[in-house]
Design a protein that fits this description.
Layout (H helix, E strand, L loop, with lengths): L1 H6 L4 H16 L12 E6 L7 H12 L5 E5 L10 E2 L6 H4 L1 H10 L3 E5 L3 H11 L4 E5 L11 E7 L27 E5 L7 H11 L6 E9 L2 E4 L2 E4 L8 E5 L5 H9 L4 E5 L8 H8 L4 E4 H7 L9 E4 L1 E5 L2 H13 L1
């Protein structure tokens, strides 16, 4: 696939010009962005996939749910439904998409979860139906028809957006200059021992604007794995005949963590947001013990034939200087 991206390099200037023109039209007000008189907070990125948006949304939910009526609004990538959909007890990963269903599965008693590719319509329907205090937009940084009050931009430690190329050769959805719209930039998936000197070097690379704040975060893995009505210590899987099943953009950090814990496994690697087919399920039924990500578990949890063998390993977003980050979020909501 890399060679295909290389030979498509002549397309990059065209993509750059088209996305730059689109941003210019919005920046100049020629194309209209809608603003709101209540808090709308966007979590997104410049690149396609794999920056860690889901853990950040979950962090914000935990931060705010005790004091505010929170609603999340996602596109619902690869869902089978269309238009606006407000999650209820009939919702599945197929009707909502795996990530929104994960939000609903974990926080359904505390928040409202909705999907709509048309973010303006989605926000309006949410206000009409449930009137939330704050709307969290998932993966909407490029949806300029909505102007969020606060933009949180994510970039991965080992592939900063300033080190990437535009599509189709690279992974950037829009030019690097688009980062200027962000109020907060979070460098995700950092090593836990990242030094202050390294942080300073990254801040210099990103060429931060005066209005922007930068934070560094890493992923923490649970010491337990969970299945339907059961849990195990991760160390109990050492020495077991284990199959790792992933349908995420970058499974390498997950794999390295398991290896560092002494686990050996066969890896079945599927594309990001993979919709598991009957053939896939038949293959998984033959596996003695399956470990997967929480996102993939949302698509597999209703397969009763996997009940005894299927487990997932939760992850959690941990941010350095969390008190300052939390204060910025609360200050935005207050004003």
């Amino acid at each position: 696939m890399k060679w295909i991206r290389t030979i498509l390099f002549p397309v990059v200037p065209i993509y750059y010009l088209v996305t730059s023109l689109r941003n210019w039209l919005y920046d100049k007000g020629i194309k209209a962005s809608k603003t709101y008189d209540f808090p709308v907070l966007c979590v997104g990125n410049l690149s396609v996939g794999g920056t860690g948006k889901t853990p950040v949304i979950e962090y914000l939910i935990r931060l705010l749910k005790a004091d505010y009526q929170v609603a999340t609004l996602s596109r619902g990538y690869k869902r089978t439904s269309e238009g606006f959909l407000l999650a209820d007890d009939s919702a599945t990963a197929d009707t909502l998409g795996d990530e929104p269903f994960q939000f609903y599965n974990k926080f359904k008693t505390d928040i409202k979860v909705a999907v709509d590719a048309n973010r303006q319509r989605g926000i309006e329907r949410l206000k009409a139906l449930v009137n939330p205090d704050v709307v969290l937009l998932d993966d909407a940084f490029q949806h300029r028809k909505v102007k969020a009050g606060l933009n949180i931009l994510l970039t991965v430690f080992d592939k900063l957006y300033v080190e990437d190329w535009m599509l189709p050769t690279g992974n950037l959805r829009e030019p690097i200059s688009g980062a200027k719209r962000a109020h907060i930039i979070v460098v995700t998936k950092c090593p836990s021992n990242l030094s202050e000197t390294q942080k300073k070097g990254i801040v210099e690379k990103l060429k931060i604007q005066a209005h922007q704040h930068v934070f560094f975060s890493h992923i923490s893995y649970s010491e337990k794995v969970y299945g339907r009505g059961k849990e195990l210590e991760l160390k109990q899987l050492v020495g077991k005949k284990l199959t790792l099943v992933t349908g995420i953009a970058n499974p390498i950090p997950f794999m390295e963590h398991l290896k560092n814990k002494g686990l050996e496994f066969e890896h079945l690697n599927f594309p990001d947001h993979h919709a598991f087919s009957a053939k896939d399920i038949k293959l998984l039924e033959k596996q003695e013990l399956i470990l997967t990500t929480e996102k993939d578990y949302m698509r597999l949890k209703n397969q009763s034939r996997l009940d005894k063998s299927l487990f997932y390993l939760p992850i959690e977003f941990t941010i350095d200087n969390a008190s300052s980050f939390d204060t910025l979020i609360r200050k935005f909501l207050a004003t």
